[in-house]
Amino acid sequence: MSSTTSAATSIELKWELPQRGHVGMLSLIAAELAIFTIFVVAYLFYIGKSLTGPFPKDVLELPIFATICLLSSSATIHFAVKALQNGKVRAFGTWWFATMALGFIFLVETGREWHHLIYEKGLTISTNLFGTTYYSLVGLHAFHVTVGLICLGITMILTLLGKVKQSHSDRVDVFSLYWHFVDVVWIVVFTVVYVIGR
Amino acid sequence: MSKPLRIFGFLFSSLFPVQTVFGNQADSSQIPNMFKPVSTPAHSIFHLSLFVLAICGLIFAVVFSLLVYSIVKFRRRAGDDGREPPPIYGSNQVELAWTVIPVLIVLVLFLATARVIHAIQSAGKPAEAIEVVAIGHQFWWEFRYPGLGVVTANELHVPVSDPAHPTPTFITLLSADTDHSFWIPQLAGKTDLIPNRVNHTWIDPNETGMFVGQCAQYCGTQHAKMLLRVYVDSPDQFKQWVLAQTQAAQISDAVNEGRHVFETTACINCHAISGTVADGRFGPDLTHLMSRETIASGAATNTHENLQLWIQNPDAIKPGSLMPAMKLSERDLAAVTAYLETLR
Amino acid sequence: MASESIALATVQEVPRPIGSVLHDWVVTVDHKKLGILYILYALVFLVIGGIEATIMRIQLIVPHNNFVSPQVFNRMFTMHGTTMIFFVAMPILFGFGNYLIPLMIGARDMAFPRLNAWSFWLTAFGGLLLYFSFVGANGLYGAGNAPDVGWFAYAPLTSNAFSVGHSTDFWTLGLLVSGFGSIGTAINILTTIVCMRCPGITLGKMPLLVWLNLVMAAMVLLAISPLTAAQMMLSLDRFLGAHFFDTQAGGSAVMWMHFFWIFGHPEVYVLVIPAFAFASEIIPVFSRKPIFGYPVMVAATIAIGFVGFSVWAHHMFTVGMNPYANSFFTITTMVIGVPTGIKIFNWIGTMWGGKIRFATPMLFCIAFLFQFLIAGLTGIMLAASPFDWQLGNSYFVVAHFHYVIVGAILFTLFGAFYYWFPKMSGRMYNESLGKLHFWLFLIGFHLTFDSMHIPGLLGMPRRIYTYEPGRGWDFWNLICTIGVFFQILGTAVFVGNLLWSLFKGKAAGNDPWDAWTLEWSTSSPPVEYNFAQIPVVRSRRPLWDIKHPEDPDWKYE
């Protein structure tokens, strides 16, 4: 061991490897993308194959407001991370809260849409192939938003308790990767469900 | 086919009769042997398989020899001096060689295979083809001949096909419940029957005889006894068979009691007998039950005892099949069996 | 050299109460302990899965046998396959990876130790959930049925209509849960290898075992997820009345097959690549030469990883795809034989010109080479789709994949056991018993799986609880069953040897094999923190450099 070390100290070794948190989160995102891909494939395959109605064009309306909220939350979380990296904890808290609020609005809008579809249009997961694929894909995404909101919430509480510092900026950056992923998936889901599938 | 391949084929297929020495009775037509094809798709596959086996055999011989040589020649000897052998880290030329050669082998294999895929799957259907619709059920086969007006079960009759004037049988494959697979190795490769999907296969047997197979996709408890028989008839035999199958059910006063039992119990919910009130489609059509050599999709021979046993206690023959134990009285059982035995 | 680690290991250990020891193991986040937990868990299920197989083989020893009912037999093949893949092969390979990777890259633990523990316990729970089905799962047909839908659970057999009760749900949920555990471990392995290598271990200097586990982990991330998605869909069908695979509502049974095999085929590469990894560590050491063609071995593995995602529908050649689809999957399946074959040649190249020592680990790896060659060739036969139209879903396929899973994977696993047991336990196993295990198991393996090809060629489908006499299958089924008992004996010798050696084996020392990778520089077993000082390396064989300072590898690599 010592001979290797002494031989090595005579060589200048710059040894920098990627950060664990980022690599780990990106790996998780890769796996999650694979899951979503399968649900998207099922959705695309079953377009037009429902034997009975209601059909997408009859009941789906573009969720513009919800989409704007969710996509803006990617911007707000980006600003939040930047603020914490520069040590501005108050600014971080504000942007973080904005992200939470926008994400929460998105979920509320989704809930309202589902309420409308179930009670006014009679579309449930067991109604037909459209219902099955719609609720599962949008639902899977909404589940991921919910998990993100819980993490956002815990961080918010810790921030309010004064426990979040500039040294934690790496961790919030890792979390923001997850949040951006949720947004990217929404862009795909939106395109597949409300544009292609309608 | 080339001479070396024929010799190889002969040697290879003669490996198999060996086991009949140890196995039981059985004339060899009961062996579903893909290496004794009697129909064009099976023939094409047989030739391809010999080619593939020959190439794989060659590869095996070469690599096996290299392996044996290396472990023998390069083993540590008894009086070894303990010095490490020269470390060789690799060789680009060698790596190139053993990349290029396999790629070429793959190319050749693929081209040979693609030809056969297209030959079998894109075969045109001549006007004289017999059309059959096969519907898979848990755990029996329904066969309908739409052009001929025949409905039967489990035992498929087809005419022999003369290569000069082919009369192949084209089979449409459907399923009433779960996945099944239609497989008679001497006639063709297997094709699955999948609900909500239409599949096709075809056979043109050039020899008369009876060929066996069975369901080849796990479909539930009694998948193992969803057996298949294909009877390849001479043109005359086939015409007679069709004629007999298209008659309405025989009516005989001697079995009135049995017919009455049949028509007033649950039998008619599942079974059909043409010309009577029985028109259930869940189980096999019984109009010409006695024209079949087996019952319960090949699980038992069609004898008096087996017929009674099947009706009274199907689990004794095929436990888990969907035929319910009818729980008839002794008298009713005898009567209904006698009735069924008139359905030729 | 490693004097610091040795000094610490000779400190007197006061015997602790058993409760404290058990508590340690339950709450551990140490990769070595978790690795051993994975391995022990898998060994228990190996025995259970083996019992399930034995029951099947006894039922099939003669035609029309009555050893078990069809219902029981169908549960046996379902549970045997599911157990062996998810609760034996995957955990044991994760276990070895967990144990060895940090040691081989000079790290003190995995990247996420708590995630590591979470993943193990989740996987373990999944297995228990699956096995609870034997006692739970009330359906209409009485209490206690394990799933009987086959390990690939084709739709619509798995729908509520055809699978009443909850047996299928135990399959789905048990695997769903353990699937999350697998993804957790894969994230951990990937992140550890990318982020925690000690100075000097560039990607081009990692031991092949580490490289291959990297590829395997990446594949797990992308392959398990389709299964997870499909199982979520199946559960939605069964619990909420969704119609993903409901053919009566227009759903597609074939879609389940696509999703399952998009998981299922890469999964078998996930299983075999770590087996290649063991061979790639053991064969060089016992041939006394470095691995031949290291860069090509890495490239071939990456190629297998990519191409492995393009071959899945060769499991579906008989479902009636059009000729172009069949041709596509034929060629991709044949193409993947090329990098696989290259690896075999490179192993031969490693032995070539060496001085082969036939210790037990090497015996198993040599058998692996012969057997994997045959398995690969029967795979090429199956790749030719028209040939597969005859051989598919028959005992030929069963023989082929057991040749891979037992003949290649289990054999290299046995080799790995014997090779690293001294490191993990500090003791040497008994070499004569090891060789006895090898010969018994070899004979049993060949009796069973060589003969199994023949009924397949003669038309015997798989998953049948009995068969007709006189089809030419009887004799071969008999031989096949006889082989099982040799394998049981061999396995018993193996377990006995390990247990006995654990207590009575002679001290192994750090490096009983005169090997070259970093794990052999630690004590046996290693101290909890692995390395007192993080090592710095300059070549692929750091210990060779130390032992041969006049002729170090880094001059030539």
Structure description:
The complex is a heterotrimer of chains A (198), B (344) and C (557). Helices cover 77% and strands 0% of the residues of chain A. Chain A has a domain at 78-198: Four Helix Bundle (Hemerythrin (Met), subunit A) (Up-down Bundle), CATH 1.20.120.80. In chain A, helix 2 runs parallel beside helix 7 and helix 4 packs antiparallel against helix 7 (169-196). Chain A is mostly helical and 198 residues long. Chain B is an alpha+beta fold. Chain B folds into 3 domains: 33-75 and 90-123, Orthogonal Bundle (Helix Hairpins); 130-246, Sandwich (Immunoglobulin-like), CATH 2.60.40.420; 253-340, Cupredoxins -  blue copper proteins (Immunoglobulin-like). Helices cover 36% and strands 17% of the residues of chain B. Chain B has 9 helices and 12 strands. Chain B has helices at residues 3-13, 18-22, 40-73, 92-121, 235-246, 256-264, 267-270, 304-312, 330-340, and strands at 130-137, 140-145, 150-153, 155-159, 169-175, 180-182, 191-193, 199-203, 209-214, 227-233, 294-295, 300-301. In chain B, the strands form 4 sheets. Chain B has a 5-stranded mixed beta sheet. In chain B, strands 4-10-9 form a 3-stranded mixed beta sheet. In chain B, helix 3 runs antiparallel to helix 4. The two termini of chain B are 45 Å apart. With 557 residues, chain C is mainly alpha-helical. Chain C has a single domain (29-555), classed as Up-down Bundle (Cytochrome C Oxidase, Chain A). In chain C, 66% of the residues lie in helices and 0% in strands. Chain C has 17 helices and no strands. Chain C has helices spanning 3-9, 18-27, 31-59, 70-104, 113-132, 167-195, 208-240, 253-287, 294-307, 323-335, 337-351, 360-383, 385-391, 395-425, 431-457, 474-504, 542-547. Chain C is globular. The chains are: A mainly alpha (198), B alpha+beta (344), C mainly alpha (557). The interface between B and C is large, with 97 and 99 residues.
